[in-house]
């Protein structure tokens, strides 16, 4: 069965899933078993019915692993303690780390990371100070979108190398050293200032959660308060110090049109890039406003991975 207008094909299994979804919504909204089952229990039952429906009927080809993540993120969003939600698995930090790694995968797969890089570069008239500033902005943007330092290096360093080649700079010259140092520092250092900006953030979170006396002490806000200033100071020292130590006497020969042409060659924004950008930005805003809404970071990253899979940016075969 299909719709003529959109061309979207609906399988019988999709319709059966919608039936289960309707039942789940009835349970969540009507709450028919109060007071024997409290309201929160009805919402957990809603998540369980939806998850089972996803497992059985696989709408939109959502893999079973991602369907299970829907249940985890929903129960975490209900403020059920992570120790209860993850009691059958391992530390909740792992369920923050694994989905977050896929954020970096999405940046590479869709080309969004490269697009962000050249989108920033084309805004500046090429000079050594402006190139350094551009890499600062690119590094901060990518650090907000993925905790993987390796992914950030894979995105930023090739851009830096292309700039060096376009300027005909010698490999061991001060100019090439300045550009590469700036790119490397911004891929590595600033993200250590917040919980999801590097992989050791979620790892430390797991260590804290494993100690009863430290449980609940670390979250996005507390990590930010402790680590942001040192990360910023180290970044400024390396960027500013590197600039004055390595700044060449000769001006750069590159024209702004080079970056504009490189960005133009990327073509129009793809559907996957737009969806990925929206989801990743929302996730970072959720991390940053954790004190306001109280939704655990694990629920946020699980929701991000679930949505990226639901919209087809990440395929089921790519999760394994």
Description:
With 320 residues, the chain is an all-alpha fold. It has 2 domains: 12-85, no CATH class; 92-313, no CATH class. The protein contains 15 helices and no strands. Helix 1 (12-30) packs antiparallel against helix 2. Residues 1-7 have low confidence and may be disordered.
Please name the defining characteristics of this protein.
single chain, about 325 residues, mainly alpha, 2 domains, 15 helices, about 70% helix, elongated
Q: What does the overall shape look like?
A: elongated
Number of domains: 2
- pLDDT < 50 runs, ≥5 residues: 1-7
Query: In percent terms, what proportion of residues is strand?
Result: under 5%
State the total count of DSSP E strands: 0
Helix/strand-derived class? mainly alpha
Order of helices and strands: HHHHHHHHHHHHHHH
Distance between the termini: 31 Å
Radius of gyration: 23 Å
- Average residue-wise pLDDT: 86
Could you estimate the helical fraction of the residues in percent?
55-70%
What is this structure, in a nutshell?
The chain is mostly helical and 320 residues long. It has helices at 12-30, 39-57, 64-77, 82-85, 92-110, 112-121, 128-145, 149-166, 174-188, 200-210, 220-246, 256-265, 271-288, 290-293, 297-310.
């Amino acid at each position: 069965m299909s719709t003529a207008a959109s061309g979207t094909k609906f399988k019988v299994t999709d319709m059966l899933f919608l039936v289960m979804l309707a039942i789940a919504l009835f349970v969540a909204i009507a709450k028919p078993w109060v007071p024997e089952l409290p309201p929160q229990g009805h919402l957990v039952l809603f998540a369980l019915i939806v998850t089972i429906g996803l497992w059985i009927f696989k709408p939109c080809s959502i893999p079973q692993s991602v369907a299970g993540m829907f249940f985890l993120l929903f129960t975490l969003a209900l403020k059920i303690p992570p120790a209860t939600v993850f009691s059958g698995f391992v530390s909740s930090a792992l369920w923050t780390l694994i989905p977050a790694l896929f954020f970096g995968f999405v940046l590479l797969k869709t080309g969004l990371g490269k697009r962000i890089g050249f989108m920033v570069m084309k805004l500046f008239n090429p000079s050594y100070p402006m190139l350094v500033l551009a890499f600062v902005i690119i590094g901060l943007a990518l650090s907000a979108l993925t905790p993987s330092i390796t992914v950030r290096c894979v995105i930023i360093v090739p851009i830096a190398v292309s700039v060096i080649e376009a300027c005909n700079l010698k490999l061991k010259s001060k100019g090439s050293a300045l550009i590469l140092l700036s790119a490397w520092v911004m891929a590595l250092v600033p993200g250590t200032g917040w919980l999801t900006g590097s992989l050791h953030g979620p790892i430390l979170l797991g260590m804290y959660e494993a100690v009863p006396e430290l449980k609940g002490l670390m979250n996005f806000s507390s990590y930010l308060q402790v680590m942001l200033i040192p990360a910023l100071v180290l970044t400024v020292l390396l960027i500013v110090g590197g600039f004055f130590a390595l700044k060449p006497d000769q001006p750069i020969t590159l024209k702004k049109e080079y970056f504009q042409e490189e960005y133009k060659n990327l073509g129009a924004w793809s559907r996957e890039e737009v969806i990925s950008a929206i989801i990743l930005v929302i996730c970072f805003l959720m991390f940053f406003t954790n004190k306001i809404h109280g939704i655990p970071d694990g629920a946020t990253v699980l929701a991000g991975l679930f949505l990226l899979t639901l919209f087809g940016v990440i395929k089921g075969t790519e999760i394994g």
